[in-house]
């Protein structure tokens, strides 16, 4: 018998826009739109446009920090999330027009991060709830049962955004968040959380690029939590073939990185892109890389894992990023580095065994306990530096709270405390 959740997931894939599900490679999922079919009769989809961000010609908006943005809902469970990038007229902004959603991180300062809170002296590290690179992968929490990320009225979402413009004129861009949610009163829903495994652990996620075949591993993390593994997304940068999550030494999620499955993720040729592909004239089997007059494919989709079983207390998790620079060209660096830094991150949404339902008429937080164990030194903070001087995403969160990781106190970010948000409801 096929579980109803699988049928629902297949239906979502078949009916979503973008690449037809039948054309998607193994594990890849279609993106959500405002018109996507709902996973639950009680669900709604809402889109929030954050911006505008003005990105200079051939330039970037570096880690723009907005400590408070609109919530999609309150007393509710988020059942799916997806980031996007748009122009003012609502059309997609992507690599084919030089616009990159370099990265975004959404966090909840009302809650604590499952992994990194224990690393700060006051246990105040905010909960990272969603992150995306330009591949814009859907995160779905209820593919495998009635789970969602709880949002209470006391929660505050903050947003960190880094955008890149490879066109010769400035661009005005909007970061979009699409949320599917159900009211807290929806029967049967329980609280999920996110475990973010990063090869730099609670660092700035950036790893030096190398040439050829190489890989990165995180340190082993021993889970103090137990529950259903709901959805896992692997995030890497150009050059990555796979981002795997290992459980107790075995690959539990193989997130294959797919390149250029949609035209929007293919850069125009003729030197528009400062890629090593163009410089080195690399060729790989079956991909149209090569001379300076050809286009370059970038990561457009990642395999996700759902229905892969449970996480038990004591299970050991590791994320590994596998890279091959001759198979997929890496991005040329913009600063002092010849190549852009790489990443190896797994976003694991976990349906907690101890996850209780929200009681709508109370504001009692019903979250998991934050792990407090081990003897990890606290950073020295970034004394005297305002938030906008700190580009590192995690340091920015810490600085926002008056703390610091002690690892990345340098100049570069921008503070956008009054960034606009427009809420676009489902039609
Ligand atoms: Cu990244």
From TrEMBL:
Sorted UniProt keywords: Signal
Signal peptide (UniProt feature, chain positions): 1-21
Superkingdom of the source species: Eukaryota
Name of the featured protein: Uncharacterized protein
Species of provenance: Eremomyces bilateralis CBS 781.70
